[in-house]
Predict the structure.
Amino acid sequence: MYNREGTVVKISPRLEANSKESYYRLEVVASDLQTVAKSSELDNMEHRLHHLESKVNQDVGKTPDIMSELKSHVESFKRKLESVEHLSWIGLFKDDGEQHLAKFTPKPKTPQLSVQEERQQVRRKFLNISSLQVTEDVRELLKTPTFDNWQWEEAEMLVLLQVMYTSLDFLSALNIELEVLQNFLFEVYCHYNNIPFHNFQHCFCVTQMMYGLIWLTDLRNKLGRTDLFIMLTSALCHDLDHPGYNNVYQINAQTDLALRYNDISPLENHHCAIAFGILAKPECNILKNLSSEQYKHIRGGMIKYFSVFSICCVSVLHLLSHELLSLLSLGRCILATDMARHNEILNKFKSIQSVFDFTNKDHKEVLMKIMVKVSDISNEARPMAVAEPWLDCLLQEFFHQSDTEKQKGLPVSPFMDRDKVSKPSSQTNFIRFVLLPLFSELTKLFPCLEQHILEPVRRALEYYSDMEKASKDEEATTKP
Ligand code: BYE
Ligand code: ZN
């Protein structure tokens, strides 16, 4: 779109109203819409679906599940076509994370209902297939970092989570009813947001990595059932209701979360509060049959591990570049504590490495913290075809945050700035200075992890180093 002066203008909520004197001119620059269903086609499809539905209704008496499913697919596709919200994630359309979109886009009439419908469908499918036997091949795959999350849909992931809980004998050990576990898992699924990185898929991956590590390291014979339960359940809940903006943003933008938690780890506190909110519903309370002593132990354990999850980005940043760190105000204690915590935990683990004793309570605690950290940031331990899309999702979420920060005039974290970040160089630094030191330490205690997590991460380092070199070479040849 051009203005009268012939300058390209951005279509955004801030666009000035036009008039006869100051009109805008639209020009078609691309028109490859053959692959996208046109509105008329969609109407036609919808019409045929209605017709088919009434026919089937006459014959069968009720709408079969498959038909409702199809209907909801059409609905959701229609919603996607009509909404521009998704464009903000790819940077074509920048919203400021707040209300402007509402003015700009006609909201779907009953958005909540449709999301609800979609979830109910996942629930029905989950319950339907949960009684089916998961093959031995899949059960084995589930125990290794080679598992490919991208091949499974949400209902199937819920079944796989159920498999994890059952095969670690949590149901019998903690007296959990299957139905309650299913309600709990479904509620957890409902409380993850539809955002690029910190979504239900991420929750699944972290939980699956934890599950894999438990098997690979034979932790079942080294720790108690309750400790394993705490680790798996913390992994499952660790990013509940993540809004896609990190702690630094919460504090700078003075969000409700930062206000509620006095700027102290707002996100982690929130994830944890949501988790215990879910457990407060009797039909979801997988801890309800425990003694109050056991409940206290598990709640205490989970609260402890939430604060360990997710190395604060600033600790990463610190390692990426010391100059960049000085750009940030260091007054925020949360950053300091998180950074201190990362180094503190790793150093403590290093110091007990040679005398590690599985019967020592303190040693066990440090090990569990390390496992939690490793699981959360372990994407690069997966095959490249699985890992690389995760990095793209993360950068998408980061870039979106920095776009919002720029719009609001807030400080911008340099490692999230789309104008400053290079994917391969950020990731090589992250692997060199965060992943390898952390993973090597765990591998010293469990040498068998060498092939499962250390080798893939070394390959990833090579992959991104090559990519970095290739992009530098290209720069050198294109620049005069
Ligand atoms: C971290 C903190 C918060 C959220 F920009 C996510 F280079 C992460 F620093 N994770 N999780 C996995 C990661 C990864 N951060 C990075 N690489 C990962 O593989 C580095 C970042 C892209 C950046 Cl640490
Ligand atoms: Zn996470």
